[in-house]
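Page 37, continued from 36.
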């Protein structure tokens, strides 16, 4: 028994993690470099353009557009954590990257905090649409600047605290392995490196509770809110229903985008369990890339007010 204790205590000395996911992209690294570079630049330009339009137009200074701006800012922040490092590693042609455990934990904390925050922001948007369409007389009272600020702080600070605790629990686990077939660090993978035992079980249970609190419950709330909106629209005139649903459609598309991307990643992990490292690496990349590229397109093309301002702005630039 004592020998077993000594073996499990040795991994405490592990202070770095090797990410070898780049090996799955090495044969076409230049293609992936230019592909991800274009995606990153497109995301930066499109997000910045939409945020600029919202901030510069007083007519768009409304709760719904505040939440849209917050989602796009999350997208920029998450992409900046992910893309530059990936692009540098692809350009260098390395097949694996060694990072300290502390840096790995910080990366996982940032990406998961921003990702779960986006789900909460989408729930806040659905609440805004619910009040606007189902309780219009109460809208100015309920969605006051103080309420919007409180919702923003909740959507940003709650994930920071919950995910931070998950990272803290993962950092206390003794590691039996130090190699991950990943491009970036995430909490699930870090926990999978541990030696098992009660501490690992506690970490896994807590991580599941965080997912329930920041992803599952907001998703249920979003579905409930838009179901109520749809119920009201079915009882009103066609013109009212068309206008109301058109304001909800972009948020639903973004919500579905986040949900499908996250769901595919979770299913891929559970079903393949590391047996297909290339699929695992590409899925993890697309989980970050697809929402960041898709969101500004949806908000820029599907939100009538933003689309009108973008057309006016781009039209003035062409005239000049």
């Amino acid at each position: 028994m004592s020998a077993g204790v000594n073996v499990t205590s040795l991994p405490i000395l592990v202070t770095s993690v090797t990410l070898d996911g780049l090996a799955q992209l090495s044969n076409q690294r230049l293609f992936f470099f230019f592909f991800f570079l274009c995606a990153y630049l497109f995301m930066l330009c499109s997000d910045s353009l939409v945020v600029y339009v919202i901030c510069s137009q007083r007519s768009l200074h409304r709760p719904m557009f505040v939440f849209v701006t917050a989602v796009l800012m999350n997208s920029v922040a998450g992409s900046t954590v992910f893309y530059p490092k990936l692009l540098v590693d692809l350009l260098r042609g390395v097949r694996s990257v060694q990072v300290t455990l502390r840096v790995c934990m910080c990366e996982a904390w940032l990406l998961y905090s921003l990702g779960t925050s986006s789900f909460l922001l989408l729930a806040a948007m659905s609440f805004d649409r619910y009040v606007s369409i189902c309780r219009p007389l109460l809208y100015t009272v309920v969605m006051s600047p103080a309420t919007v600020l409180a919702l923003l702080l909740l959507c940003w600070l709650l994930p920071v605290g919950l995910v931070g605790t998950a990272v803290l629990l993962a950092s206390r686990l003794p590691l039996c392995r130090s190699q991950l077939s990943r491009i970036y660090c995430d909490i699930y993978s870090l926990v999978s490196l541990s030696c098992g035992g009660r501490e690992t079980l506690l970490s896994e249970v807590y991580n599941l509770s965080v997912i329930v609190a920041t992803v599952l419950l907001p998703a249920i709330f979003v579905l409930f809110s838009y179901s109520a909106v749809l119920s009201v629209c079915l009882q009103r005139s066609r013109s009212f229903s068309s206008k109301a649903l058109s304001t909800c459609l972009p948020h639903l598309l973004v919500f579905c985008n986040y949900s499908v991307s996250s769901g595919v990643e979770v299913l891929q992990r559970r079903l393949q369990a590391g047996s297909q490292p290339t699929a695992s690496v590409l899925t993890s990349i697309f989980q970050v890339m697809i929402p960041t590229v898709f969101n500004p397109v949806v908000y820029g093309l599907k939100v009538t007010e933003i689309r009108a301002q973008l057309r006016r702005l781009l039209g003035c630039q062409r005239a000049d």
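The longest helix spans residues 198-234. Flag for discussion at group meeting. Residues 1-11 have pLDDT under 50 and may be disordered.
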